[in-house]
Amino acid sequence: MSRARVAAIALLAATASSCSSSFGMPSGASEQGQDIFNLWQVFFWAAIVVAAVVYGLLGWSLLRYRRRRAEPDALGRQFREHIPLEIVYTAIPVVIVIGLFAASISTGDTVGDVTPNPDVVLHAEAFSWGWRFSFPNEGVIVLSDPSGEGVPGPVVKLPVGETVRVELTSNDVIHAFWVPEFLFKRDAIPGRTNIFDVTPTTPGTYHGVCSEYCGLNHAYMTFTVEVVPAQEFRSWLTQQPSESTA
Amino acid sequence: MAHAATVGVHGVTAVAEAPIVAEPRRRRPVSWLTTTDHKKIGIAYCVTAFCFFLIGGTLADLMRAELAEPGRQLLTPQTYNGLFTIHGIVMIFLFVAPFGVGFANYLIPLQIGAPDMAFPRLNALSYWFYLGGGTLVLLAGFAAAGGGAKTGWYIYSPLSNLRYSPGVGPDLLILGLALTALATLLSGLNIVTTVFLLRAPGMTMWRLPIFTWNMVITAVLGLVAFPPALAAFVLLLFDRRLGGFAFDPLGGGDPIIYQHLFWFLGHPEVYILILPFFGVITEIIPVFSRKPLFGYTGFVLATLAIGALSVGVWAHHMFTTGVVDNPFFTAMTLTIAVPTGVKFFNWIGSMWGGRIWLAVPMLFSIGFMLNFLIGGVTGVMLASAPIDFSVSDSYFLVSHFHYTMMGGAVFGIFAGIYFWWPKITGYLLSERLGRVVFVFLFVGFNLTFWPQFVVGLRGMPRRIVDYDTNLGWNTPNLVSTIGAGLLTIGVLTFLVDVWTSHRRRTLAGDDPWGGYSLEWATTSPPPERNFASLPRIRSERPAFDLHHPDLQPVAAAEPKANR
């Protein structure tokens, strides 16, 4: 009868069925993305355990302590506090949170690490509305039309297994560079350059979007990242126009 | 007063010796325009806020219709961008927060045994500022020359600069928000003063009903968080209209400063939105479990901790900017989960060993707990900066905050409406229709927002009018739109319930639920100036003590007087 219990069980079942291993998310096509994916696993399982305990206690109270039809005016037991219990149920979340903090810091350090000698430097400039990608060390750019409805964004290739430094900026409003398969995004802010490393591990074609709302054609400000073998990447680079001529 | 005789036996504290003078009879609309009565202002707040809820919900339905399938069917990008901008502002600043203020206006004087708020005229002024600000926001969205505001609800610079957002829409939006912020500040002052100065004899701070406690903390948060935001709004207007460069990098300004100022409002604001409704369900759960609140002192301390911590978490909205101290804000945000999380144990402890009556207010409170827990655990995920890199500004985030704001705050609003409707109007809403409303809202809500977690993890960013068909986003979006339809049916059913209750006029009596706090010791609706006489206040449950004179307050429960 308890609707709450049914709902709780349904939610748990829905969660359990989606949690074979990846919880329905990409498992990371880069070293940094895989680190973040592993952190997700910690948080997901912590969440499931906490939710199971709380829903279990809630469901039990609703089942066990329902008002009886025969005595509608009966009162419950009039206890008000239990200090040891209250200390315990405050301390346990504190411990959980400390563990989650430690895991977050360790992942944050590796993900935020920027090597002084990247294999490739990718310069990404966001504008309203589109992306201007270039490789300053090789002096080449990736040509594309400004984004709009029905206009595909630029395609940029990256070498598998090499560390790519992305230098990200914007020349008008704030945008953000997000490749969901890398589990990573960073804001493109006018007047600043944000730097991060990506080390792709899995060849493939990945969808990229602008994730910071930037006005009219925000929805169409997409791009594609193709992770390819290093050789293919180098020969693709030579086919791109040089920065000086374009 | 039905209980006047009983009250006499147990001792009465007279509050209003002077005879109650009836106001001169005026025509009703005029009396609503000129009123300074806290109950009328409270009702005006709630009714106005509910109208904004209907407007904001309609905007959301339009967006869900567009997103039901990939491709663009109904709306232009301009229209869509305006819809989510106004939807966010309306729901946050014109619906949920003012609804809390409406409850506070109506209930706080009743709960502390006062005849009115401390500053009745200031109270009326707050309401009119709020209504004026809300009207400006709607004009900004739909009637501004040169197109409505399409800046997103946080009005980031430089996007909100005149170069990128021409027209008067954004100006009206900023002015409307500023006016609403002013209203919040004034009513915050009023609430704090009222609770500190106008409590009836015996009503110590440690006997305050939890709703009143939570409103005090909410009001203080508003007083801390809104002034910097007001400053930021003024600077935005300088940048737009007076050639300023506060946030514009072209003139040496810094858009990040705006984000700091805005989120220093924005994050306490989410607690301003949720704390009143923590209060609401904390009033309801013990009443319908026939028990006192479990861990009253711990609950209040936890709420104070939330208030204190909530002004130190704002930059978790800026993890992806790359310019804030992510570990610090991760730590603060994870920490605030503790006092928020332990409230679940207060609620469960209050139900444990009780005699739970699943009336409609209790159903909505249980719905609140079920939904808010999901909002809470996903909030813990988003508190972690590296996880935030993968899902900030995605539908995962959208779903997370709807689980707290809609699954939490809005369910709290409906719980409160069903709980206090008999007190406010004197008539009962229908239990049967109320259950229907609950089922539609609960199922519809989860059907709308659970799929948004799924598409968010699959990489769908927020605020897009259109999406490609091959990204695995189609089915969840369709389910979400169907859920929004069920939600709409639920809200319409509620309106039917209100209408039929109005027609049927089933008398509620003074205390249909067996309530605990003082408002249940006066008539329904309460008279002008609220009380002819007050029961003696010896615990945090004066109305309960009044109706159960045989049950002396348990010794342990007698709170230490703090004054």
Descriptive overview:
Chain A is α+β, with helices and mostly antiparallel strands. Chain A has two domains: 3-67 and 79-112, Helix Hairpins, CATH 1.10.287; 120-238, Cupredoxins -  blue copper proteins (Immunoglobulin-like), CATH 2.60.40. Chain A has four helices and ten strands; from the N terminus they run αααββββββββββα. Chain A has helices at 3-17, 31-64, 83-112, 230-238; strands at 120-127, 130-135, 140-142, 155-159, 164-170, 175-179, 184-188, 194-198, 204-210, 222-228. Chain B is mainly alpha-helical. Chain B has one domain: Cytochrome c oxidase-like, subunit I domain (Cytochrome C Oxidase, Chain A), CATH 1.20.210. Residues 1-24 of chain B have low confidence and may be disordered. Chains A and B meet through helix 1, helix 2, helix 3, strand 7 and strand 9 of A and helix 4, helix 8, helix 9, helix 10 and helix 11 of B.
> What is the rounded Rg of chain A?
25 Å
CATH superfamily label of chain B: Cytochrome c oxidase-like, subunit I domain
Q: What is the C-alpha radius of gyration of chain B, as a whole number of Å?
A: 24 Å
Counting DSSP H or I runs of 4 or more residues, the number of helices of chain B is 16
Largest interface: A-B, 94 and 95 residues
What is the string of helix and strand elements of chain A? HHHEEEEEEEEEEH
Full CATH superfamily name of the largest domain in chain A:
Cupredoxins -  blue copper proteins
